[in-house]
Specification:
mainly alpha; 0% strand; elongated
Length: 550
């Protein structure tokens, strides 16, 4: 009896992009591996024959006709049978075929309108990724060792050792001196006569173009289907760029190779699986191919933009491996994409961005942290100044959500903490330089703050400031730090407290108006100082605030 198709399921290509990714999460794959294959007695012969048929597609003389003839009888079930081989470590030798990688690229190209639009194209891509990584391991003369380790692994962990086997070789190629690994993939695209290149240049261009043209679906698929690691694919494409840069005219290289690769790479950085070696490899590729983080990108359409923002928010809020510098790079990728019509996404971006900075800034050197915080404020100023349509006169739900996001993110406190750390790092020789850096940080902070406040409802912001008690917290913190800094380093008063008092008063004025508090009259610096001096409080650091001084 023929199986009844579900809604939107294609008779040949299976489930659409909005349905199939949930079948390929780590948990879903692990659960599937626990099921039995006893009811599918012919699955292995089918898998081996299918691999042979896919390999035939790599032959240039067969490609034009083969995709419609050979490809037409390679069914979704057959591709699933091929992937059943990944249950068993000993079966990975069947993936060590460069022609399988090339054939999968050709088969992917047959799926319309885009390769990853349907499950069929995604399964072609899965087979490609497994095959490519197996070929990398084999090229590095490490396949037998890797399979042996996988065979000895506890149940459900052999794939971790597979990805790790490829990762060690890639890391050794990208950073051998630091990691102490041997370089075995240097000539992976132009090997000795005894070896076959994993992919020829034409197929590498084809793969790059397929992924670039389908970058919207790539993000959507990988955002949920987190069981696939693309560092091997990105590494091989990186080696392709490295080689082509030497022989191609510069403009051709930039437009046809570097830009497409950068767009794929930066999207993957938002959705890659949370593993230490994958994070390490992506960072190493980024270091070896500089310039990507300076590019301005555009979303394909509104849905693509929302998917990217969702991936960005999830990455910054949940990732345990990103650094402060990573957070800045991600912001630099997403910020230029925002356009009028996406205003409702801004509050979530504010929350996730500053959550990421709060989580990472203290774990890096203070110079880098200050630079990243300052840069993010510039990005937000540009968003509010250039990319949004409505202003403070609007009363859309997102305007109110923005107020809550500002309160939750406590941007002023973050700025104060970073500036304080900067002031503590100064020496007698760098005192003026440090003061200038702090002033610059404060200047960018207030420009960003005043521009952001233009998009908030005044009465609601005033109400939330009062209810939250955040202003009183700021005053108590200022008073406490004044006492501590003056006792430890009187110059700190001029370096940090008084400039921040001015910043603080301007920030509150931007929200409440110049007529609200006496401290906002001319001579505000002295008024702030008098208000601070008038506070007679015990140290309250750590109570009702994130501020802490040892």
């Amino acid at each position: 009896m023929a199986r009844v198709l579900t809604d939107n399921e294609h008779w040949r290509w299976g489930l659409p992009i909005h349905s199939y990714p949930k079948l390929y999460t780590k948990d879903a794959i692990a659960a599937h591996f626990r099921t039995s294959l006893e009811d599918s007695a012919n699955w292995r012969p089918s898998a081996i024959i299918t691999i042979s048929d896919i390999c035939k597609l790599a032959q240039p003389t067969h490609q034009r006709n083969s995709v419609e003839t050979v490809g037409s009888h390679i069914t979704l079930r057959m591709l699933k049978n091929v992937l059943e081989l990944t249950r068993f470590p000993g079966e990975f030798v069947n993936f060590a075929l460069p022609s399988l990688v090339a054939g999968c690229i050709v088969l992917m190209s047959s799926v319309q309108p885009m390769p990853l639009s349907y499950e069929y194209g995604y399964l072609c891509f899965r087979v490609l990724v497994y095959s490519l990584n197996t070929c990398l391991i084999n090229h590095g003369y490490n396949l037998d060792f890797t399979i042996e380790r996988m065979s000895s692994a506890s149940a459900g962990t052999h794939l971790d050792l597979f990805w790790g086997g490829a990762a060690d070789l890639i890391a050794g190629e990208l950073s051998p001196s630091i990691l102490g690994f041997e370089r075995r993939l240097t000539h992976v695209l132009d090997p000795s006569p005894k070896q076959v290149p994993i992919l020829e240049g034409g197929k590498l261009d084809m793969l790059l173009n397929l992924l670039h043209e389908d970058q919207k679906n790539l993000v959507l698929a990988l955002m949920t289907a987190d069981s696939l690691q693309l560092s091997g694919v990105l590494f091989l494409l990186y080696k392709h760029l490295e080689r082509e840069q030497k022989v191609r005219e510069k403009n051709y290289y930039v437009q046809n190779l570097f830009y497409p690769y950068s767009r794929i790479f930066r999207r993957y950085r938002l959705v890659f699986p949370e593993t230490n070696h994958e994070n390490q490899l992506i960072s190493l590729i980024s270091l070896n191919l500089p310039g990507m983080d300076t590019l301005r990108d555009e979303a394909i359409d509104d849905d693509d933009l929302r998917n990217i923002i969702h991936a960005y928010n999830r990455c910054l809020m949940t990732s345990q491996t990103i650094t402060c510098k990573d957070a800045g790079h991600y912001m630099g990728f997403v910020a230029p994409m925002l356009t009028p019509g996406c205003e409702d996404q801004v509050p979530s971006i504010v929350v996730s961005s500053f959550w990421g900075l709060w989580k990472t800034w203290s774990k890096t050197d203070i110079d880098t942290a200050a630079e990243v915080v300052q840069t993010c404020m510039i990005y937000f100023w540009q968003i509010f100044n250039n990319n949004l349509g409505s202003s403070r006169s609007s009363s859309e739900p997102w305007n109110y959500e923005l107020v809550d996001a500002i309160i939750r993110s406590d941007v002023l406190e973050l700025t104060f903490q970073v500036a304080l750390k900067l002031s503590e790092s100064q020496t007698r020789n760098t005192e003026q330089i440090t003061r200038n850096r702090i002033k610059k940080l404060f200047d960018y902070m207030i420009s960003f703050w005043e521009k952001m406040v233009d998009y908030t409802p005044k009465e609601y912001f005033e109400q939330r400031l009062i209810e939250s008690g955040i202003i009183d917290n700021w005053f108590r913190c200022l008073a406490d730090f004044t006492k501590r800094l003056y006792a430890r380093s009187p110059s700190g008063l001029d370096t940090i407290i008084l400039p921040f008092s001015m910043l603080f008063s301007r920030a509150v004025t931007a929200v409440l108006g110049a007529h609200t508090l006496p401290m906002h009259q001319p001579g505000v610096l002295g008024a702030c100082a008098r208000r601070i001096a008038a506070l007679d409080v015990l140290p309250r650091i750590g109570h009702g605030t994130n501020l802490f001084v040892a």
